[in-house]
Design goal:
The chain is mainly alpha-helical. Helix content is about 80%, strand content about 0%.
């Protein structure tokens, strides 16, 4: 049986657990807004589509700063740049068509998913409980390819296409937060 070096419940572990819960909560709120409010307002739908990658940039930036800085967390630093560029690209694509917006989200899902996967692999030995983030990153990259394919179809996509993706992301963040919590409880009980 393989064992991993896992630190006790340090400030870093607490931060990561809280960060994952925060990411899950934001995504759940975003998905609810996308399904409940966005269908009745194109302005709200557009705002939600802009906010989603902007939030990802801010969240990655905050996590990188709390986890040793951007120099120690290069995958997250790159993710900040990719998400900021995506935010600008979504603003521009909204002027063209939803097909363009979905294509931009597809490219972003691929890049940010691979960067998230890299971050999770880097954190695995130190924190454990990163398998869900590895799966999330890989699945994000696959979903991105599907978004790009959908964007080339004549059917006009909607925010619902992105909301399903966000819902799965919320689930992965929640699973990671719970897994870290349970791992911490187990370590505490073993001591």
């Amino acid at each position: 049986m393989r064992t991993y070096e896992i630190a006790p419940d340090t400030t870093d572990t607490q931060w990561l657990r809280h960060y994952y819960f925060l990411r899950a909560a934001f995504s759940v709120g975003w998905v609810i807004a996308a399904f409940a409010i966005a269908p009745s307002s194109a302005v709200i739908a557009a705002a939600l589509l802009i906010v989603y990658p902007a939030w990802d940039a801010a969240a990655n930036y905050l996590d990188a700063l709390r986890s040793g800085g951007l120099n120690q967390n290069r995958t997250q630093g790159l993710n900040v740049l990719v998400s900021l560029a995506t935010t600008i690209a979504v603003i521009l694509a909204l002027q063209v068509s939803m097909n363009w917006v979905l294509g931009i989200f597809g490219a972003w899902a691929i890049l940010s998913g691979l960067l998230q996967l890299g971050t999770a692999v880097r954190r695995w030995k130190r924190f454990g409980a990163q398998w869900a983030m590895v799966l999330s990153g890989g699945q994000s990259a696959l979903a991105g390819g599907f978004f790009i394919f959908q964007a080339t179809m004549p059917a006009v996509p909607s925010i619902a296409n992105v909301a399903g993706y966000a819902a799965v992301g919320a689930l992965y963040f929640l699973v990671s937060a719970v897994w870290l919590t349970v791992s911490t409880w187990r370590r505490s009980a073993a001591v």
